[in-house]
């Protein structure tokens, strides 16, 4: 929190938000100084009639400060117009509040994050990830749908939507999302595999499934799932494409070696 407030003051040295940041920073530094100068042996002397608390002082005494400070950082970022960064900090605050069992602060952080999502696909996506962690897939699905609607070319958002929609029985939505992800990044295998599995295992559309399996083998023969794709093609009575020549690297292997984690970053 201290480093975040320092960075905020460097970017925004004047005005009411800067004054709030300065006060918060001073409070954090004072708390840290007090903790550093506190004697190691702070337990009361039993002979002096003192009593010990059920929970001795320790790191937990500082946890509420961490949540509150994260909320302050988020509020300052929101006031400066940095909505996506503010959402990320609100979600960090919500996770910390979850961990420390502070539901009031968690709900406050989540409400603020939801209000800031707006037309930002990344913000909706990050909120969806939070709801996945919180085991609330219905809320996550809505956020992934928003992220995908706001960015036609963002692979991760469409893949997340395809997976979650498929697990929830929304097969039409899953097919649309998987197709969009495959169009966005045809050198990545996951979307095409999801599509093949949906047609084969869920929708029982053999012709479409076979087309997807054949395409998967053509593009990603180096993928471990290509053997399963060939087996399914045989079971469906369809010939698989020929295997690549021995010693020749597969088309699907090399792009994966150089693929970045998130090349689109949510931008159209």
List keywords for this structure.
single chain; 268 residues; mainly alpha; 13 helices; disordered C terminus
Overview of this protein structure:
By secondary structure, the chain is mainly alpha-helical. The chain has helices spanning 2-11, 16-37, 63-79, 83-99, 103-117, 121-133, 137-150, 155-167, 171-184, 190-202, 206-219, 226-235, 253-257. Helix 6 runs antiparallel to helix 7 (137-150), helix 8 (155-167) packs parallel to helix 10 (190-202) and helix 10 (190-202) packs antiparallel against helix 11 (206-219). The longest helix is centred in the N-terminal third of the chain and has 22 residues, at 16-37. The radius of gyration is 26 Å and the shape is elongated.
């Amino acid at each position: 929190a201290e480093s975040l407030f320092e960075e905020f003051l460097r970017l925004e040295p004047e005005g009411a938000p800067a004054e709030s940041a300065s006060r918060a920073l001073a409070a954090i530094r004072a708390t840290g100084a007090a903790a550093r100068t506190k004697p190691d042996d702070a337990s009361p002397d039993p002979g002096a009639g003192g009593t010990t608390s059920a929970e001795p002082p320790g790191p937990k005494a500082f946890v509420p400060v961490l949540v509150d400070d994260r909320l302050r950082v988020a509020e300052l970022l929101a006031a400066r117009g940095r909505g996506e960064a503010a959402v990320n900090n609100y979600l960090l605050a919500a996770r910390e509040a979850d961990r420390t069992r502070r539901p009031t602060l968690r709900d406050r952080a989540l409400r603020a994050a939801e209000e800031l999502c707006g037309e930002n696909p990344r913000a909706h996506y990050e909120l969806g990830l939070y709801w996945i962690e919180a085991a609330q897939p219905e809320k996550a699905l809505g956020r992934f749908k928003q992220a995908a609607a706001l960015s036609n070319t963002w692979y991760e958002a469409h893949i997340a939507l395809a997976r979650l929609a498929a697990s929830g029985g929304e097969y039409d939505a899953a097919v649309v999302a998987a197709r969009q992800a495959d169009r966005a990044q045809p050198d990545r295998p996951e979307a095409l595999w999801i599509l093949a599995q949906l047609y084969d295992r869920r929708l029982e559309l053999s012709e479409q499934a076979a087309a997807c399996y054949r395409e998967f083998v053509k593009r990603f023969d180096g993928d471990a799932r290509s053997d399963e794709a060939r087996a399914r093609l045989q079971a469906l009575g369809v010939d698989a494409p020929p295997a690549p020549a021995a010693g020749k690297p597969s088309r699907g292997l090399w792009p994966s070696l150089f693929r970045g984690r998130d090349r689109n970053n949510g931008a159209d």
